[in-house]
Design brief:
By secondary structure, the protein is an alpha+beta fold. Helix content is about 30%, strand content about 10%. Helix 4 crosses helix 7 and helix 5 crosses helix 6.
Length: about 290
């Protein structure tokens, strides 16, 4: 069923701007672009040989996802909105098998021991260039990144997280981490980093605090980041303690200096793994209910 009927384009005052261009000489009028548009704003031509189009009053509802571009069998659709395309040629890069992907995924490990070598900014940019294709609600792409590349700043954020823990411990207010905090502080004061595990870098996903999809979209993007790391010789781990502190401790907020209105959605430590993975441990069977 086509979705165009569920949007009342005439009931809202919208800014009109055409979003796509269709090459009429290449278009074979197959209708795939009409069917794959997630918001149903591409209409088939009124006559049999007319090319599909987006009505002017519907153009503002385009979320610029590019589904029509991706599925066009003749590559005759191009965007009229600003975007950065990948250099990947889909036809020359066939999908990997399920067995290959499964093998790669189950070998993923949370890395908590790192070498001292810094990761080049160029390599991190390559990872983020792939991660920007992670799905987001309505293609909102709300995730922003702060990459803490300076190891000294990572150490400072670790120290500030310990300071936050000391305040939590001294407070009379209940906190779910209170039972763990004393041992974490003791470890830190003995020269062990229980917060960022000695990682040289941090990837911090942040977005506007009022965006209802920001947290989910950030978790998806960070999951992509973590999954991509091993293919670049890197490892990563979720920085849970830092994430909690960053959302409640002003000195950490000041150090991160995020754009106005933004909040940390989650954080991840990463770097070159100190040790090699030789075997995949077991896991419980998938808990599945079929309906």
């Amino acid at each position: 069923m086509h979705l165009s009927g569920i949007y009342d384009y005439h009931s809202m005052e919208v800014h009109i701007m055409q979003k796509i261009s269709i090459d009429s000489e290449k278009c074979v009028r197959c209708g795939i672009c009409v069917n794959v548009c997630p918001v149903g704003i591409i209409s088939p031509g009124e006559e049999l040989m007319d090319i599909p189009y987006i009505p002017e009053e519907a153009a503002a509802f385009c979320n610029e996802c590019g589904a029509c571009i991706s599925f066009c069998v003749k590559s005759c659709i191009s965007s009229l909105f600003d975007t950065n395309y990948t250099s990947l040629d889909v036809l020359k890069n066939p999908d990997i098998s399920g067995e290959q992907l499964g093998s790669y995924m189950v070998k993923r490990r949370s890395i908590r021991n790192y070498g001292n070598a810094a990761v080049s900014k160029e390599k991190i940019d390559l990872i983020l260039d792939n991660v920007r294709y992670a799905p987001s609600g309505m293609n909102g792409q709300p995730v922003h990144w702060t990459i803490v590349h300076d190891t000294d700043v990572v150490k400072k954020l670790t120290s500030l997280t310990i300071d936050w823990m000391k305040e939590v411990l001294a407070s009379e207010e209940p906190h779910p981490l209170k039972q763990f905090i004393p041992s974490l502080i003791t470890a830190y004061e003995s020269g062990i980093d229980p917060i960022c595990r000695g990682a040289p870098h941090l990837a911090i996903a942040h977005a506007h605090k009022d965006n209802p999809m920001a947290y989910t979209d950030s978790i998806i993007a960070l999951s992509w980041f973590e999954l991509a790391c091993p293919s670049y010789g890197l490892g990563a781990c979720w920085a849970g303690f830092l994430n909690i502190a960053a959302n409640s401790y002003q000195p950490i907020m000041d150090e991160l200096d995020l754009p106005k209105g933004h909040a940390v959605q989650h954080a991840m430590m990463f770097g070159q793994p100190l040790y090699t993975i030789y075997k995949v441990p077991g896991r419980n069977p998938a808990k599945v209910s079929w309906k």
